[in-house]
Amino acid sequence: MNVFGSRIRIRPTKQHDLSFLQTLWNDGTVMRYKGYPDGMHVTAACMERWWAMAPEAHDTEHSTSYSTPHSIIELLDGTPLGELAYSIDADHRARIDLKLAPTVWGQGYATEALSILLRDLFAASAVRKVVVEPSPANLAAHRLFTRCGFHQAPTENHPDRWECTRTDFAGRHATAAAGVA
Question: Residue 177, CB half-sphere, CA atoms under 13 Å: how many?
Answer without folding.
Answer: 6
